[in-house]
Amino acid sequence: MPLFFPQEDASDVRRRYKPDVIKGDMDSIRREVLEFYASLGTEIVDKSHDQDTTDLHKCVTYIRDSAWGLDKSNLCILVVGALGGRFDHEMGNLNVICRFSYMRIVLLSNDSLIHLLPRTYCHEIHIQTSVEGPHCGLIPIGTPSKSSTTTGLQWDLNNTAMEFGGLVSTSNIVKEEKVTVQSDCDLLWTISIKKL
Q1: Which end of the chain is more exposed for a tag (fewer CB within 10 A), N or C?
Q2: What is the pLDDT of residue 196?
Q3: Burial class of residue 172, CB neighbours in 10 A (0-12, 13-18, 19+)
Q4: Separation between Cα atoms, residue 118 and residue 72, nearest integer Å
């Protein structure tokens, strides 16, 4: 956070934008960072005994369980820094968005964002052209798609089959401010982010 406010004292920024909860297996957080936020009242949830789920999985579970009484399909979780770095971590993050397909989880990096389009819906994606695009892609995940159809793209799909080892829609271009997608399998939607 201090990088967003270079004119301010880094300690002041860290105090002002402190997390409510730090949850995970605690293997990648420096001890002094953990102690700093604990001293400010941040709840620390140590799940180091659970090595079967990733830190993102643990955090999404925490958010889901904390939102009792709410329709989970209305939740939107933005995950910053989920892309780039180790490929196995990226794949683990993609696995989480598939595991929690009933929730909207958006993975964001400096270059792009990704979210899951479950097969059970006809999706309308409203493009924020000031920050998104023009490059985009649709990638079948889990199973091949026998039929995917889009509108609003330079190269629309028309009952197109897609699968790994065959066609996947990469390097496509958004041509309209509304894109529609319908598929018989779950698809990952990815779109480039413009440098501000």
Answers
A1: C
A2: 66
A3: buried
A4: 15
Report how far residue 179's alpha carbon sits from residue 191's, in angstroms, rounded to the nearest whole number.
12
Q: Find the helix or strand (DSSP H, E) in which 90 lies.
A: helix 87-99
Written as six digits, the tokens of 171 are 């390097």
pLDDT, average across residues 26-51: 86
Residues paired with 172 in a beta bridge: 136
pLDDT tens-digit map of 168-192: 999 999 999 999 999 999 999 999 9
Give pTM, 2 decimals. Answer: 0.85
Domains of the chain, first to last? 111-196 (2.60.120.320)
Residue 133 DSSP symbol: E
Please give the share of the chain, as a percent, with pLDDT higher than 70.
Answer: 98
Q: Burial level of 191, CB count in 10 A (0-12/13-18/19+)?
A: buried
Q: What is the distance between the alpha carbons of residues 163 and 9, in angstroms, rounded to a whole number?
A: 50
User: Cα(37)–Cα(53) distance, rounded to whole angstroms?
Assistant: 24
